[in-house]
Design a protein that fits this description.
Elements (H helix, E strand, L loop, with lengths): L3 H13 L16 E4 L11 E2 L6 E2 L8 H6 L2 E3 L11 H6 L6 E3 L7 E4 L24 H16 L17
Parallel strand pairs: 1-6, 2-3
Antiparallel strand pairs: 4-5
Protein name: Carbohydrate esterase family 16 protein
Keywords: Signal
Length: about 170
C-alpha cells in the first residue's frame, strides 16, 4: 500500500497540470458538411448502398459518378439501428432523422456517409480479415471518398479548406 500512494499522488499531479495549449473550440455553427467513415455504429442506409451495410456502394461496386452520389438519399427505415431509428450522426446533424428519404444536400449540415457496417480497419492485417467479400474497410472508405466523393462534393482544397481542416488526403 505504501508504494501505491506515492504513485497516486504523482498521477494526480500529472492529471492536474494544465495543458500547454489552450483548447480550440469546434466552430459547429460554421459546419456545413459532415463526411463520415466507420463501421455499423456510423453507417446510414442510402438508396445506392448495399442493403443493411452502406450509404453508397460496396467493395464490388466501389466507384460511382457524380450523378449517382448526388441522386442518393438517406433512407430512414427504422431498422438500421438497435433502437430502430436514426443513428448518432443523423441526430447530431439533423439530417435524415425523419422517416422516408432525405436528400443530404437539403440539410443544414449535409451528411455524406462512407461508413460500412462490419468494416475492418484494413485488409492488410491478417488479424482483421474482411467480414465479407463485399466489405469496404476503413482504409478503403477514405480512398473511396478521396477518389469519387471529394471531387463531387467540392473537393479538398488543402490548408484548412473543404473536408479536411489541414488533413493531407494523399
Amino acid at each position: 500500500m505504501l508504494l501505491i500512494l506515492p504513485f497516486l499522488s504523482t498521477l494526480t499531479l500529472v492529471l492536474a497540470t494544465p495543458h500547454p495549449y489552450p483548447p480550440t473550440p469546434l466552430p459547429w455553427h460554421q459546419t456545413t458538411h459532415i463526411i463520415a467513415f466507420g463501421d455499423s455504429y456510423t453507417y446510414i442506409q442510402g438508396l445506392h448502398g448495399r442493403q443493411n451495410y452502406s450509404f453508397i456502394g460496396d467493395q464490388q461496386n466501389f466507384s460511382f459518378n457524380a450523378s449517382t452520389l448526388l441522386s442518393n438519399r438517406i433512407v430512414q427505415n427504422q431498422t438500421a439501428t438497435a433502437e430502430g431509428g436514426p443513428n448518432w450522426l443523423e441526430f447530431l446533424t439533423g439530417c435524415g432523422v425523419r422517416r422516408g428519404l432525405t436528400d443530404p444536400r437539403k440539410c443544414t449540415r449535409q451528411l455524406w456517409d462512407f461508413a460500412f457496417a462490419d468494416a475492418d480497419i484494413s485488409a492488410e492485417y491478417a488479424e482483421t480479415p474482411l467480414h465479407h467479400e463485399f466489405t469496404v474497410s476503413f482504409v478503403r472508405q477514405v480512398e473511396q471518398f478521396r477518389l469519387y466523393g471529394s471531387p463531387v462534393l467540392g473537393g479538398y482544397r488543402g490548408e484548412g479548406g473543404d473536408f479536411g481542416g489541414g488533413v493531407d488526403w494523399d
